[in-house]
Specification:
With 88 residues, the chain is mainly beta. The chain is built from no helices and 6 strands.
Length: 88
Amino acid sequence: MQNGLFFRQQPPDSRGGMDIYQFDLPDSLQPQKITYMKGIVYDAETKQPLSASFELIDLETAKTVVRSSSNPGNGEFLVCLPAGKSYA
């Protein structure tokens, strides 16, 4: 199955507007679907944010998918992950 991809540009000979183009992109060339995981690391007793290193593991393959760290100032993190999987 092929999916259409759209892009726009303003060529030099355009009459002031953007031109929109479409082409088919085979499934084998489609980008991988992704999702995001957002969280905060904090001390369980004091509730103060923590700087921490962590890794997320694909439960099906047992391989590490992401190694990251939380923000040292507020404990927040945001990571990008392949969609449709389970992680630990």
